[in-house]
Fold each of these.
Amino acid sequence: MASDMREFVLDDAARLGRAVPDALAGSAAWANGGPVRVRRRIWLDTFDWRLYWAGLTLEQAGSRDRTELVLTGRDGGILATELLAAGRAPRWPSLVSQLPAGPVRELVEPVAGVRALCPVVRATSQVTELRALNADAKTVARLAVDRMSVTFPARALLPARLTLIPVRGYSASTDRIGAAMTSASGITTAPGTALEAALAASGLRAGQPPGKGTSVQLSPSMPAATGLRAVLTALLDELEANVPGTIADIDTEFLHDLRVAVRRTRSVVKQCGRALPSGLATEFRPEFRWLGDLTTPTRDLDVYLLAYGRMTAGLVAASPADLSPFRDYLAHSRTLQYRRLAAGLRSARFARLIAGWRAALEGVRPPGKHPTVAQLAAARIGAANRRVLRAGQQISAASPPESLHQLRKGCKELRYLVEMFGSIYDAAERWQAVRELKALQDCLGAFQDAEVQGSEIRGFASQLFATRAVPAETLLAMGEIAAGLAIAQRDARREFDGRFADFASPASQARLAGLALSAAA
Amino acid sequence: MKVFATYNIKGGVGKTATAVNLGYLAARDGYRVLLWDLDPQGAASYLFRIKPRVKGGGRALIHGTKPIDAAIKGTDFDGLDLLPADFTYRNLDLLLDSAKQPARRLAALLAPLARDYDVVFLDCPPSISLLSESVLHAAALLLVPLIPTTLSVRTLEQLTEFVGTFNGHRPDVLAFFSMIDRRKRLHTQIAAELPGQRPEFAATVIPALSVIEQMSVQRAPVGAFAPRSLAARQYDQLWREARERAGLTG
C-alpha cells in the first residue's frame, strides 16, 4: 500500500500547539484528536544496513497497550505489520529467525540473510493528533504532531514533525491542507524520513557502512606510502568496527568481516610492505598472523553450522536426524572456540596490536613523491599476476591439493591488489578484471573448501568415535557427507583447467596489463 | 476476508446499530473493516457523518463501470471504512436482475477487496428480495436481530428454511434478541427461554437503551462516546460471539 502521507517539520518547537492550527486555520476547522500518545520507537537494521539499501525501514513501535513491528517501503507505504504479544518483543539485537512467523519476517529474512537486526536508533515520540473537520464535523484529514527525543545513538531533541494523514475518499481536503502547510511560514517539507532525521541529529547517516579499505579513494600521482596509510587505516577502522559484534556474538558476519579486514591488511603489508617505513611490516606481520589464526577455528565451525541445513538436505541414504549428534558436537565445539576467540579479542595483546598499529600508521610519512600509487600498483599487480600465471601453468593432474591452495592464495592477493587500487582504474575494466579473477578463485575455493572440510569431517568423526558414544548412523551419515565433499572437490578440479585457461587467455591478460598501464599513464 | 451481514425482513429491529457497533469493535480489534451501507435510507452513512452518495449510483457499482474501491470513504475511526449508501440503491433489485448471476453478484463485487479488508459488514435494507438473496450468498455469517415476539421467531424460521434451500454456500446464522424492553414480561420471557432451545441464538441480548438511541445524536458508535455503558458492553460481548462463530482468530 503506497503512502499518501506528507511530512513537514515545524521550525520552532516553541510555537507548537498554537502555531499549527493558526497557520492552517483557513484550510479547515480543527479539533483535538485525543490525548497525547507516547510511543517508544526502535528502528532496526543489520550492521551493514541491508534493509536500508533494499529500500526497507523496520520499526518497533510500542505504546501502553501494544507493541508492533512496522515494515515500510521506499515510498513510506506500509508493507507489513506484526503485532507482538505482550512481553514477547525480541531482545535486540536478534536474528530474523527469532521474529514471530508472519509477513514481516517473510519480507525481511531474504534481505537480512544471516545478519542480526540491531537497533540503529532508539527514540520516544509524544504524538498529539489534530483532526481537520468538514461542515458535518466529519474528519477529513489528520495531522499528527510528533515531538521525538532520540536516546540512541546519541541524545537529541528533534524539531516537531508534522504528518498529514489523508482520510480515504477526502483527498481534495488533504490537498488543500497540504498546500496551506507548504506556504505557511515556520513549516517546511521534511527533507527525509524520521529515521534519517534521528540519525542526522546523532551526527550519522542512514546506510553509512563501517570503514572499508576497498572504498578508499586514491589518486595515481599520490605518494604510495600516503595511499597505503589511507587504505590500511580504513581496514583498521573496519576491523575495529567488527570487534564488539564479534565479542557479543551478535551474528556470524561480524567475525567474517573482521577476518576479511585482517586478511586484506596482511595481504597489503606482505605485497606492498616495502613502500612503508622500514621495519614496520616486519614488526606487525607476526601479530596479524596471530590474529588471523585466532579467528580461524570459530569461523570454520560457523561455516559448518551455516551449511548444516544444506548438508542434511543433500543426504540420500541417511536421514537428517542421524546427524543431530554431529550438529551438537559442532555447536559445542563452536562454543569452546568462541570463548577462546572472545578472550583473545579482549586480551592486552590484541589491544596492544590495534593501538600500536594505529600509532604506526599515523606516523607513516612518504619519503618523497616516488613511488606513486600508480607505480606501486603497476609493479605489485604485475608481479602478483606473473606469480599466479606461473603457479597455474605448473599445475597438472598429479599436483597435490596444496599447490592448488597456494594458487588460490595467489589469486586472492592479486584480487585484493586490484580492489585496493581500484579507484585509480577505469571502473568497467576493473569490474571485468575482478569478475574473471573471482571466477577462477571461486573454483579454487570450492576445491579447497571440500579438501579442508573433507579432512575435518574425518577428524570430527575420529574425535566423536573416541570421546563419545555416538550411534553408528551418525558416523555413516558423516561418511555420506564426506563422499559428497569428495564429489564436489572432483567437480571443482575438473572445472579448474577451463577457468585457468580463461584467466590466462590473451584477452584477460591484456585487461590486467591495461589496468596497470591506464593508471601509470 | 469474512463477510458479516446484518439482516432481517423487518425494519426498525437494530440492524444498522448492530453493523455500526460491531464494525467499530472489529476495527478496534485490529481488523481492517469495510461497512457497506446497502440501505437507501443511509442510516449507517449518517451515523458516520458521510454523505449518502456514490458517483454513478448503484448502477455503476453493480455493473462494474466504477470500481467499488473508488467509492469507499474513511470514517473517523482507524481501520474502519464505509461504502456509503445512495438513494439509487432503492433500485438495486432491478439492477441486480439485469446483471449476470444476480444472486452471486455482491460476492463477486466484494472479492477484489480481500486484499484491503479482513472483515466486511453488509448493512441490509429490510426486505426479502433479489438483493437479500445476493447478500445471503456473499455472507459467511448472518447477524439477525430479533424483537422477542412470537412473530419474530417465525420470521427466523422462515429465514433458516430459505437459507437451507441454497445449493453450495450457505451462511451461518447468528440470531440475537434486540431492543428488549425489560418492562415487558413477554420480552424477558422469550429472551430467557429461546436462546437455550435453538442453536442459532446468541447468548448475548441487546436491551432497548437510550444510549443506543443517542447514536443518532452523537453520530458515532456507542463504544466511541459511551465506552463503559451497558450497551457498549453488550455489543462487545455480541462481537466476541460473532467473531468466534465466524472463526476469526484474535
Note: The mean pLDDT of chain A is 90.
Amino acid sequence: MTSDAIIQIEHISRSYAMGDEVVRALRDVSVTIGKNEYIAIMGPSGSGKSTLMNMLGCLDTPSSGSYFFNGVDVRTLSDDELADIRNKEIGFVFQTFNLLPRASALKNVELPLIYAGLSADARRERAIEALTSVGLEARMSHKPNELSGGQRQRVAIARALVTRPSIILADEPTGNLDSKTGQEIMALFQQLWEQGNTVIVVTHEEDIARHTHRIVRLRDGLIESDEPNDAKSL
Amino acid sequence: MPRASEIAESFRIAVSSVRANLMRSILTTSGIVVGIFFVVLMGVFIKGLDAVWEKTISIIGKDMIYVDKWDWAGGHSWRKAETRKDITFEQAEALCARLEAPELAMPLARRWGGSVMVGNKSMNCSVMGTTSLYGQTPAGEIESGRFFNPMEEQQGTNVTVIGYGVAKTFFPDGNAVGQTIKIKGFPFRIIGTIAKRGFLFMDFIDNQAFISLEAFKSVYGFQDRNFEVGIKAGNERMLDLVRDEAVGVMRQIRNVPPGAPDDFSVNEMKAFDSQAAAIRLGIWVVGIVLTALSFVVGAIGIMNIMFVSVTERTKEIGIRKAIGARRSSILMQFLLESSLLCIAGALIAIPLVQIVVFSIRFFLLNILEIEAIEAVSPLLPLDLLAIAIAVSIFVGLVAGIFPAIKAAFMNPVDALRFE
C-alpha cells in the first residue's frame, strides 16, 4: 500500500441478476494503483475486466468490498459526486470512441469542461491545447464522420486529457483500429505516461499489453496474476 | 444548481435536437398549436367583450342608480316584484325632494313600445317622461340642439328630445332638430338629439324619446302608472352612501315596517356586471374544457416523442454521464427540449390567432358595421401572449418530465452499451 495510491481496491465483488441467475462478474479483487503507473488489465472475454473497468471509472459501484479513489471511499458518494469524479478525475477512452456525431472535434473535447463549469473562453483554450497535444490542431472543426478511426481515437484521448484527470482509463483503445494505427495510439499513451499521467489500459491483446509496465490478468472474476512487465520495467 | 455553462449547453442541444428533426417536431407540436390557438382566441374574445361592456356602462353612467318596483336582475325576483305596489308619482317626487346625498334625482315615467311617427313612417320606441335634470346625466348627453328647460317642463310644452336610434331612423341626414314627431298622435317639436349611447346588446337605449312629465301625463296619463327615480350619485365613491340613503328614505315613504324586506329595488349598472360575469364564466368554462382537451392530447404527443428521443439518444446520454454530466444536467436537457417544442407550438399559434382576430374584427367592423368592435384592439394583448408562452412551457414541462427522469436515471454502463 503506497501513500500516493490513486486507486485502492480491496476485496471487491460485483454480481448482476440476469433473469433468475446471479452472475458474479467479480468475485474478490484487490488492486492498488499508484501515481504515474502505466498498467494493463488483461483477460479473456467474460473474465470480468469490463466490470472492473466500469468500477475503476466510477460508472458502477461494487456489491461488496471497498474502493478508495484518492483516499475517498467511492461507495459513500452520491450520484452527483460520482459524476464529478468522472468529470474531474477520470479520462475515459473507449473502443468505439464514443464521440458525439453531430459535434465538431473541438466541441467534443470541450464537452467535459462544460460539465466542469468552465467559461466558454477557457473551454476553448483548453480544448485547443488538448487537441494540439494529440496532433489534431488542423482537424478541430471536423466532425467525427470526417475523421479517420485513428483521428477519432485521438479526439477521444484529447477529450480524456482535457480536464487534466488523475487517471486515463482506456477500454480496448485499439480494438477498432488497424495494427499500424493501433501502434500510433499506443505511442501516444506512452507519451502521456512520460508526461506524468497515470494510464490504465484494458485489453485482451498481448501486443498492446506489451507496451505497459505492469500487467494485471483476470480470469473468472479473480486476479490470476499481477506482475511487472519485465520487458518494460526499468 | 446546474451551472450556467450546463444550462447553455442544454439549450444548445435542445435547439439542435428540435432542428435535426424539424418535420417531426412540427407535427408533434400541432396539438399544442391548437391548444394555444384556442386559449388566446378565447382570451381575446373575453377581453373584447369586457372592453365593449365597460364602454357601454361608462357611457350610461357608472354612478347612476334607479329606484324601481322592478328588479333589473330579473329571474325569480320578477314574481316577487310583480306583487309589489306601484311607486306612485307622489312617492317618487317625495323621494327626490328628501334625498340629500346625490348630485341629481328625478322621477321617471316609462312607456315601453310607444308608437312614434314622422309623416307616414312609424317606429316603436320607448317614451320617457322626466325632468330637465335628465339632460345633466350621461345618458341624456345632447348631440345637437338642447334638452328641455324647467319652463317647458312646468308648462308641459310639446317638445321632445330623441335618442340616436330614433333620429337615425327618421332623419338619416341629421336634420332632426326643429322637425315634428308624433307621439301617440300628438305632435311634438324635436329640440334636441342625444348622442349614441347604446352599445352592442344595449341598443334599446338609443330608441327612446324624452318628454317632460307634464307632457307625459297629457299623452299617457299618470293613472295606474309605476314611476322610477333616477339618481346620479355624483361619483362612484358616493354610490354606497347614496344607495343607503335612498333605501332608508324610500322605506319611510312606503311605510315598510322595520325588519320587513324592501318593497322596491335599487338598480345599478352593476346589476348587469354580474350577468356579464356569468357570460364570461360560461365562455371560460367551455373554452377551458376544449383547450384542456387539446393540451392533454398535445402533451401526450410530446411525451411520446420525448420517449423516442430519449431512446434514440441513449448512447449519447451514456457518453455524457461518463464524462461527468450529473442527473440534473440530463434532466434539464430533456425538459428544455420538450419545453422548446411547446414554445415552438405557441410561436406557430400566435401569428395564426393574430390573423384570425384581425380578420374577424375587420369583418365585424367593416362588413357587419358593428361599431362597438372599435373598443377591441386589433392586436393581441401582451398579457395574453405571456400567458400563451407560460402555458406552453408548463405543458412542455409536464409532458417532458417522465421521459427526462427516465434519461436522468439511466445507468451509464447500460447506456454506453446501447447500440
Note: Helices of chain A lie at 49-56, 79-88, 105-116, 120-133, 149-161, 179-194, 206-209.
